[in-house]
Design a protein that fits this description.
Helix content is 18%, strand content 32%. The chain is of the alpha+beta class. It has an eight-stranded mixed beta sheet, with helices on both faces. Strands 5-6-7-8 form a four-stranded antiparallel beta sheet. A four-stranded antiparallel beta sheet has the order 9-10-11-12, with no helix packed on it. Strand 18 and strand 19 form a beta hairpin. Helix 6 packs across helix 7. The chain is globular and about 65 Å long. The protein starts with 19 loop residues before the first strand and ends with a helix.
Length: 731
């Protein structure tokens, strides 16, 4: 499928806060806080002012006294009251976490010791070169290299791009898209320097080492070379951070002259582009979370006449690749778990089944090669990689793995005439492993396994795959890892996501060992909303069945307590983004179960966000959550579970909440409003902290060590709240 191969090389890619004292401001005043001397440490958390605000939809009036925390000039955030409150919360976070600094530093040191600092990827061939990336010891970011195929091992590689050099002097840096032209001469890449995910693209001449004058701003897409390497196809970001166009930039021409190849009128859709398997067709796709539409045009003549594969039909998703005059189509038009069909280029909408949809096998992807093709999917929730022949597509050669629970999939395979397939494999006890699969001999060769310098003995750990019954009788899978010598009934950390059909893989984590080696079991709940058990599993956790997701998580925790894995109050939990929404819902529903909660960039103000069509993602999200603007039932249902709206006067567990001031996905005011309301309403004295990254976005701080330190802070908070910091107390 075009998402798997786009005929380009894609690289894997603190401010001092002014302390503030807590003050409950007069509701009639415009200011919210009282300042204290710059060197003062706050002695109490900040209390946000309540300002009268309400709104009415479908005859229902909602009071929202913390609406003022939403700076209406967003994405510019310059309201002094808002910034004062966010900084005051940061000061409170620093004051409370200060005494835990020794534990945080110890965790960071041990986490860093598990990472090979001079790590590199396994070289992979594309065209006449081998490409790879390396971290140098101590560096935050990668360097990207290549050298000619067949060059002696001692030959000096060419440094194509140094992320460390690009990031120098910046608080935030992230490499986005990166693609090498087919002739190997040019590297197009994009960067984000503030976390807003509005990238700027540049082009480097790899023969001279010079940057071309071309600069494409405000990018939100891949970069695809077309027209014999003379032009790039990209997707610009609209004012509201939506990708509604595919544009063509001819190298050496003003960006103002770029040609619109396709423009989408439906603001809930998003546009993307890539190349077909043989790199002869440009494929332009548009769609939302449930509907697709695809066109294709000659990659040599991208401004030529486009061919529409099949007009959009609500609820029908499809993706396309092309080989030797035939379209291969992955679609859910006849079966919820998708089928694979094909059609001639001349009549692209005439889909004939190649692999029928199945209740057992969930087809998630496919990739076309010269002499065979590969299908990927899940069987009983476990990843499958299957080789198939074009003349006998129902004859399967599966690639098998020894463990009962694992995560596996195709990796980077850029050549159409591929004879060895690059795969990735890991499990909850097996570190990340890179294999080559020899197609002719049907044999696997281990090329590299993640090295853990401080040592790792897999025999000390055990992993289990359980099923826990939810309240409606549904059996929910759970993946668990723990030490074999762990005491029963000890602490357990529970993680999930549960949205958008994303299945959390039962993979390996070096940072997770810092909890597991201290007696935690670590469990992943494969709850509805993900597609772990097929497409229906996803559909049962969205729209009017969204609360299944929250109930599954609560019931999994209760089930693990009943089975003796842990005990009431010893369950800690974390989730981010939509998983942060999950955290907000479960603490409203069953707060006594949890000893500590970490909610990263939590999507907790669901109703307000879905009512605001001007926000970046809202129109495209209505298919996931419902449209409360037009649908009274959707309004009432979202209101019934939206974590911010459902905060009530009860005890809540200790909580750490994070946010990013520049986050375009979950805007900073969602966690800010939630924390402000919790501080006002909750009846306990448990710790509640919020940390806002002032120069970052949805993914937190950039750089591998900065990001790792934030994980150490998270685990330090959990251990503190679980009373497990004794090892540091005497130091």
């Amino acid at each position: 499928m075009t998402s798997s191969r786009i005929a380009q090389l894609t690289f894997a890619a603190s401010l001092a806060m002014i302390p503030w004292s807590a003050a409950q401001a007069d509701n009639h005043k415009d200011n919210t806080s009282v300042t204290t001397p710059a060197d003062a440490v706050p002695s109490a958390p900040p209390i946000a002012e309540k300002r009268e605000h309400s709104y009415t939809h479908h005859g229902i009036t909602i009071s929202d006294p913390y609406d003022w925390l939403y700076d209406k000039s967003y994405p510019t955030v310059d309201d002094e009251d808002v910034l004062d409150y966010v900084k005051a919360e940061n000061a409170w976070f620093e004051a409370q976490m200060g005494p835990q600094k020794a534990m945080t530093e110890a965790l960071f040191t041990e986490m860093r010791a598990r990472i090979k600092e001079d790590e590199s990827t396994v070289p992979q061939r594309r065209g006449e070169f081998l490409y790879w990336a390396e971290f140098e010891e101590g560096s935050q970011y990668r360097k990207h290299y290549r050298k000619p195929v067949g060059a002696p091992e001692s030959a000096e590689p060419q440094l194509m791009l140094d992320e460390n050099e690009l990031a120098e002097g910046l608080e935030y840096f992230r490499l986005g898209a990166a693609s090498v032209s087919k002739n190997g001469r040019y590297l197009a890449y994009s960067t984000d320097t503030n976390g807003s995910e509005r990238y700027t693209a540049r082009i480097k001449d790899l023969e001279t080492g010079e940057l071309l004058p071309d600069e494409i701003p405000n990018l939100r897409s891949s970069l695809t070379w077309v027209a014999n390497d003379t032009a790039l196809v990209y997707g610009p970001s609209s004012e509201n951070w939506r990708t509604l166009e595919a544009k063509l930039h001819v190298i050496g021409t003003p960006v103002e002259d770029d040609v619109v190849l396709y423009k989408e009128d439906d603001e809930s859709f998003g546009v993307g582009a890539g190349l077909s398997a043989q790199e002869d067709w440009l494929i332009i796709s548009t769609g939302d979370n449930e509907t697709s539409e695809v066109r294709f045009v000659s990659a040599a003549d991208p401004t030529g006449e486009q061919v529409l594969v099949k007009p959009r039909q609500k609820g029908v998703e499809y993706g396309v690749d092309i080989r030797d005059g035939e379209l291969f189509v992955w679609t859910n038009d006849e079966h919820i778990n998708f089928r694979l069909a094909k059609a001639p280029v001349e009549s692209p909408g005439d889909w004939q089944t190649v692999i029928a949809g199945s209740n057992e096998f969930y087809l998630t992807d496919f990739e076309l090669f010269k002499d065979f093709f590969v299908t990927e999917g899940r069987l009983n929730g476990l990843d499958q990689i299957q080789l198939r022949q074009y003349d006998a597509p129902l004859d399967i050669t599966p690639i098998t793995f020894p463990e009962a629970s694992y995560s596996a999939g195709l990796s980077n395979n850029p050549e159409y005439n591929q004879t060895r397939l690059r795969l990735g494999y890991e499990s909850m006890v097996t570190p990340d492993s890179v294999y080559d699969y020899d197609v002719a001999s049907a044999s696997l060769e281990l090329l590299k396994q993640q090295e853990i310098p401080s040592g790792y003995d897999a025999s000390l750990y055990t992993t289990e795959r359980l099923e826990i019954e939810a309240r409606d009788g549904t059996m929910v899978p759970v993946s668990v890892v723990m030490r074999k010598d762990r005491e029963a009934g000890g602490p357990l950390h529970l993680y999930a996501y549960g949205a958008y059909g994303y299945a959390v893989p039962p993979g390996f984590s070096t940072t997770r060992l810092s909890l597991v080696d201290r007696g935690f079991a670590y469990a992943i709940a494969h709850i509805r909303g993900g597609d772990d058990l097929g497409r229906r599993w996803y559909l049962q956790g969205k729209l009017n069945e969204r609360t299944n997701t929250f109930n599954d998580f609560v019931d999994v925790g209760r089930g693990l307590i009943a089975k003796g894995y842990t005990a009431e109050g010893k369950v800690t939990a974390s989730g981010g983004s939509a998983g942060g929404e999950l955290m907000g819902a479960i603490v409203n529903q069953d707060p006594s179960q949890y000893g500590a909660i970490v909610a990263h960039v939590p999507f907790v103000d669901v109703l307000n966000t879905m009512l605001n069509a001007e926000l970046p993602l809202t129109p495209g999200e209505w298919q996931e959550w419902g449209n409360p603007i037009e649908d009274k039932q959707a309004f009432a249902y979202i209101l019934s579970y939206s974590p911010y709206d459902q905060v009530r006067a009860q005890d809540y567990p200790p909580m750490l909440v994070t946010a990013g001031l520049n986050d375009p996905r979950v805007t900073y005011w969602e966690p800010a409003k939630w924390v402000a309301k919790l501080r006002d309403v909750k009846t306990d004295d448990n710790v509640l902290l919020m940390k806002t990254n002032m120069g970052a976005g949805h993914g937190g701080k950039s750089g591998r060590w900065n990001s790792l330190y934030e994980t150490a802070e998270e685990y330090s908070f959990i251990l503190w709240q679980m009373g497990m910091t004794e090892e540091q107390d005497g130091e």
